[in-house]
Amino acid sequence: xxxxxxxxxxxxxxxxxxxxxxxxxxxxxxxxxxxxxxxxxxxxxxxxxxxxxxxxxxxxxxxxxxxxxxxxxxxxxxxxxxxxxxxxxxxxxxxxxxxxxxxxxxxxxxxxxxxxxxxxxxxxxxxxxxxxxxxxxxxxxxxxxxxxxxxxxxxxxxxxxxxxxxxxxxxxxxxxxxxxxxxxxxxxxxxxxxxxxxxxxxxxxxxx
Length: 208
Fold this sequence. Notes:
The protein is an alpha/beta fold. It has 2 domains: 6-129, Rossmann fold (3-Layer(aba) Sandwich), CATH 3.40.50; 143-204, Winged helix-like DNA-binding domain superfamily/Winged helix DNA-binding domain (Arc Repressor Mutant, subunit A). 53% of the residues lie in helices and 13% in strands. It has a 5-stranded parallel sheet, sandwiched between helices. β4, α4 (93-102) and β5 form a beta-alpha-beta unit.
């Protein structure tokens, strides 16, 4: 019985590079480029109707921005079983650190693209020997965002993240309206944001 081919979602804004990488990977009998996107928005739309094992992401999908890292964050949350591999020409230490914080399993320079088949296979088979360490690091970065909050405030922000409304939180935690209002105000002030949604997004972004 044949093993199904590894399905790859390729996200890259340079159409020539998309064609080159797709043709290179399609030479491999066990790897298939299931879909391509040239922007974060297109990639997110495609990800809702595409089955993929690997997301191969450029970091700079818009000139001057590292929006591929933002995309990695969103895909890590919406597709936790997919392996994220950054394929980029950027080699700055801070960018590499941010990519791993966002959930990337591997970081590959475009000059090393010939290694992609091996890296894709090893990511599926073995993951990354540092995967547990990277996951702990990402968890610690998220914990850093929560550090200024009291246990009671953490409980509130957790419920906001789960979609609870203020009235539902008030009822669930048996809090007076004024007490809850003051605690939410304190949360927003500590996190430097203007709304509960912004607070949740900041925590989920792990400081990125």
